[in-house]
């Protein structure tokens, strides 16, 4: 299958994207990245978010004295959870509004989908629908990862010894998915057939939801903490090795019995992966600070950032159109890539 | 290539944040000791991980509530338990701007220190950023005898300690104190012991101990000067020390040690050793928590130093004779 490459790479003239990155001085550990429309956001370990667009940058102190632990984009706003126990919505114009205060308990994860927002602090999970109604549940153990299912008002929660699937608007007990060990990040496949978690034990675990069949994706030298699905839903990329490990999900059994592809092999560990929203291109961030784009169809590679001081790449996000990508690092460096037209 | 987490690099040089674990049975004086540490004029900033809010807090420090969530690693080893909440909290702490000079973990009175200690060896990310400095156990001189009868956790906490704070000495007679100390020593003769009232101890005796740093393991001698302490056996935990007068064969010793730790890991709480390997000018040093072993070649044997090999094991129902026999069989 061929897919339309963005204009930038289709010209064949572009050999590097280094000149198309606007450096950002985040000034603190970048804990998350997201876009809302044309506005890019970096969430920071000093409690601020850095908003960036063509007009410039501005810093908003959303969790004063704290740190942003989790962040996502949601329509024309951003949602952040802090170690001050607050869940805050920041509009692209910089206005902030706290939607919950968990009394100083850390907000460990946030997720957003179609106006709904969910967050966890310890075992407590809350889901707030688009109208502002909040439903709460207690998971069997601390929830490190939350994901909204692609269809229906349903959440997948990663915790110890498995995961739970919860319909916040019903009183039914959450559906339990068992697998021993500590499950960290959570992700549904775009078609909703699979639920994937990253694990403490340097592996991914997956369930085929139709029959709860288990899938183990192992062999990583580090925890695969970053997951990203291709726009066609047929591939899932993961961090945690010295290449982006990309599993095929086209078949009925997903990646079962299949070898993954490895993209962007470099002498550094991949810490972040983010598929382009419209083409089979993946952005890869490394622990030496480098950022590279790889096209899956021909494995062609373009550097967007050379290895640099500032620590590992800790967050990356594309805008919905696939024109721009924002990234940040552990020591507060960052950049905004605009693909050449 | 995968990045191997660096270990054994001198802790301060590596920039890792030292972590002190405070254990002790309910009412022994943990919180008193913690507040004492925090209020000393050391100018340091600590992150304090506690299970109950309220009693702790100095403006400069960050106090984080924890849930003591222990889980078993999915690696086929039943004693590989770690504190999931600690992994999560340390991950979060490392994102804060400014950082900390140290982290202090206060466990609940009923906690087994093993999962806390193992967290610092089992999790790559935690290991890259922090180092376990010492397990400090506060013991109540007045109630210890009773605790040893009714609380198995109290035994583990003493066995695991690098530093023992024998507290509330003003509430017992000198004879009672000697008896309690002998009970503690029967379980763990190697920890540094301090007798205190109101947990009053010099901060340097508690922090910056480097107890898990292989480079700092200089000798394995009991921490008391008196000869012939009373042989109390109020506990099923005891220590076994075996010395070989000379070199051992690493090709025999290392497989035995690994195998022993795998087999007896659940009963083996702490282990340490300094060894002279045949043909090796450097000392080999190891330390372990349950089945997790960490070992490396250290400095050269000095010319004036006698090459001897010694291991120390603290555990539950250890077979002293079997350990001795197996270790002596490694001698060359």
From TrEMBL, chain A:
<dbReference type="InterPro" id="IPR024977">
    <property type="entry name" value="Apc4-like_WD40_dom"/>
</dbReference>
<dbReference type="Pfam" id="PF12894">
    <property type="entry name" value="ANAPC4_WD40"/>
</dbReference>
<dbReference type="InterPro" id="IPR001680">
    <property type="entry name" value="WD40_rpt"/>
</dbReference>
<dbReference type="InterPro" id="IPR015943">
    <property type="entry name" value="WD40/YVTN_repeat-like_dom_sf"/>
</dbReference>
<protein>
    <submittedName>
        <fullName>Anaphase-promoting complex subunit 4</fullName>
    </submittedName>
</protein>
<dbReference type="InterPro" id="IPR011047">
    <property type="entry name" value="Quinoprotein_ADH-like_sf"/>
</dbReference>
<feature type="domain" description="Anaphase-promoting complex subunit 4-like WD40">
    <location>
        <begin position="275"/>
        <end position="333"/>
    </location>
</feature>
UniProtKB/TrEMBL annotation, chain B:
<dbReference type="GO" id="GO:0016787">
    <property type="term" value="F:hydrolase activity"/>
</dbReference>
<comment type="similarity">
    <text>Belongs to the SIMIBI class G3E GTPase family. ZNG1 subfamily.</text>
</comment>
<dbReference type="Pfam" id="PF02492">
    <property type="entry name" value="cobW"/>
</dbReference>
<dbReference type="Pfam" id="PF07683">
    <property type="entry name" value="CobW_C"/>
</dbReference>
<keyword id="KW-0547">Nucleotide-binding</keyword>
<comment type="function">
    <text>Zinc chaperone that directly transfers zinc cofactor to target proteins, thereby activating them. Zinc is transferred from the CXCC motif in the GTPase domain to the zinc binding site in target proteins in a process requiring GTP hydrolysis.</text>
</comment>
<protein>
    <submittedName>
        <fullName>G3E family GTPase</fullName>
    </submittedName>
</protein>
<dbReference type="InterPro" id="IPR003495">
    <property type="entry name" value="CobW/HypB/UreG_nucleotide-bd"/>
</dbReference>
<keyword id="KW-0378">Hydrolase</keyword>
<feature type="domain" description="CobW C-terminal">
    <location>
        <begin position="237"/>
        <end position="331"/>
    </location>
</feature>
<dbReference type="InterPro" id="IPR036627">
    <property type="entry name" value="CobW-likC_sf"/>
</dbReference>
<keyword id="KW-0143">Chaperone</keyword>
<dbReference type="InterPro" id="IPR011629">
    <property type="entry name" value="CobW-like_C"/>
</dbReference>
<dbReference type="InterPro" id="IPR051316">
    <property type="entry name" value="Zinc-reg_GTPase_activator"/>
</dbReference>
<dbReference type="GO" id="GO:0000166">
    <property type="term" value="F:nucleotide binding"/>
</dbReference>
<dbReference type="InterPro" id="IPR027417">
    <property type="entry name" value="P-loop_NTPase"/>
</dbReference>
